[in-house]
Amino acid sequence: MTQHYSASPAASRFKLFHELMQHKVRHILLISTPYEAWIMEQDCRLSEQIVHEYSGLNLSHPPG
Fold first, then answer.
1. What SS3 string covers 1-63?
2. Looking at residue 23, what DSSP letter applies?
3. Phi, psi of 37 (to 5 degrees)
4. Of 49, 59, 50, 64, which is closest to residue 20 (Cα–Cα)?
5. Would you write out the chain's pLDDT as a tens digit for each of its 64 residues?
6. CA distances (Å), origin 26, targets 16, 32, 39, 48, 59
7. Cβ neighbour number for residue 26 with a 10 Å cutoff
8. Has this prediction a pTM greater than 0.85?
């Protein structure tokens, strides 16, 4: 009798993440008014947050 072992939840998530990596985001397009763009850049520092998150995930090329 053969037994089938299912992968652990962590292994399943890693496999899914690995499969999704081939579909990385390369560009982000934000559509806003000039004022909203200025507010986001001044208050949120959106581009810095994106680069920081990518660095935290050990990803080398954040989207432009």
1. CCCCCCCCHHHHHHHHHHHHHHHCCCCCCCCCCHHHHHHHHHHHCHHHHHHHHHHHCCCCCCC
2. G
3. -60, -40
4. 59
5. 555 555 677 778 778 777 777 777 777 788 889 998 888 778 777 778 878 888 888 777 777 6
6. 19, 20, 24, 16, 12
7. 9
8. no
